[in-house]
Amino acid sequence: MAEEELHRVPPPLESVVWRSSGGDLDDGPRRRRESMVNKLISTVYSGPTIGDIESALSLSFTGGAADQLPADAMDNNYSSGAGVSTAMSVLSPELNSSKVLTSKMENKYTLKMKTCGNGGLAEDGYKWRKYGQKSIKNSPNPRSYYRCTNPRCNAKKQVERATDEADTLLVTYEGLHLHYTHSHFLPQHHQQQQPPAAPAAAGEISSTTTSSKKPKLQPRGGPAAPIAIAPIIINDEDDDDDTPAAGGDLDLQSSSFLLHGGGSSWQHAAAAAPRRDDGLMMVGVFPQQEAEGYDGFVDHHHHHGRRQLNNSNGGLLEDVVPLLVRRPSSSSSSSSPPPSSVSWHNPYIDMAILSNIF
DNA sequence: CGGATTTGACCAGCGC
DNA sequence: GCGCTGGTCAAATCCG
To answer: Is there a domain that residue A137 lies in?
Structure first.
């Protein structure tokens, strides 16, 4: 099927993970931001949520703080290095507030993603099974329906091409993943065998996880190249038991992650992948609506004894930003620099968003 | 041979 | 009530 030819592996990501606002912040904003970041930090990803991001961003970026971001970071084509750029965009207002896309279902949000020429798709760390496809009225492109293969997970997603932008995909996620991303279960030693060069690693991932016909995150026959997809792994300075997460201590190689405070009530949290000629680029994360019934939600597979961050809005962070952002494994929790000025060098990251689309 | 995908059928919700 | 539409089911098919 032609639609499956598009499947691919996420492109390599550039280093700089978190852009500070230039390092000249007042102590107040800095403290607030550090507080925010610390809040986000825990040793093991324990399911921070959209609400976490939103609250965190509101602490750090409201009051015009976003203006303090580097100009390039404010640009849709934020560039963090030569040959690397990331992009974030806001869905058109009608789409953002679309009643069509807004479901009664909570935790439903849409990713607007842009393919970059290779016709490929990034993985999102989860394994999906297609269970239907429908032609949608007034749309030349069919909509595909996917369900998470995890039996205890009711997460679903719908994928369709944007009618106005041939290279743009609209991926609507619905429901919560009650488990780690697929890659989280990869043997740690696999992940530690990650080659130091992220681009090469990404290439290997691409070659090993992409087949000519039915590329899959984890092709049958076992895990291929170690994939470091991930929710944001946050380290809590106050938490000494900085034991490795399920995914192990991953060196973040060539990663790029950016939380961007939006101007609206919704703070867009986007994991920005570098643009690559043959890559796929996620251009935005847009919740359909604020979820309301997931207060107290705890993913028992995530917390590992760690506190569950406030989850007022529901929606696992990994659903929104399926990234693994973890400081280099060599760093201990006690010696790690304050995350507020996170600039991890040689970090490894593997962003994955889409899978099994067209 | 087992698992994933395809695809027509079926069902529910909604508007008229 | 009827028709339209979107979402899901499930048998057939495909593929490694």
So the answer is: yes
Is A343 contained in some domain? no
Q: Which domain holds residue A158?
A: 108-115+122-174
Size (chain A), residues: 358
Residue A290 lies in a domain: no
Residue A132 CB closer than 7 angstroms to strand B?
Answer: yes
C-alpha A131 chain-centroid distance = 24
Q: What is the mean pLDDT of each run of 10 residues along chain A (358 residues)?
A: 37 31 41 45 39 41 34 33 33 36 55 60 73 88 89 84 80 78 49 37 33 36 33 33 34 29 32 37 43 36 36 38 35 38 33 37
Q: Give the N- to C-terminal CA distance of chain A in Å, as an integer.
A: 8
A220 touches strand C (CB under 7 A): yes
Q: CATH number for the domain including A139? A: 2.20.25.80
Q: Which residue has the tokens 């849709």?
A: A76
Nucleotide closest to residue A132 (CA–C1'): C8
- Whole-model pTM: value is 0.45
- The b-or-e profile of A331-342 (16+ CB within 10 A means b, else e) is bebeebeebbbb
Q: Does residue A297 lie in a domain region? A: no
> Is the CB atom of residue A1 positioned under 7 angstroms from any atom of strand B?
yes
Number of structural domains chain A divides into: 1
Q: What is the pLDDT of residue A130?
A: 93
Q: Residue A304, exposed/middle/buried by CB under 10 A (0-12, 13-18, 19+)?
A: middle
Taking residue A199's Cβ as centre, other Cβ atoms within 10 Å add up to 16
Nucleotide B4: closest residue by CA–C1': A129
The separation, in Å, between residue A36 CA and nucleotide C7 C1' comes to 40
pLDDT value, residue A144? 93
**Are the C-beta atoms of residues A149 and A128 closer than 8 Å to each other?**
yes
Strand B contact nucleotides, protein CB < 7 Å: 3-9
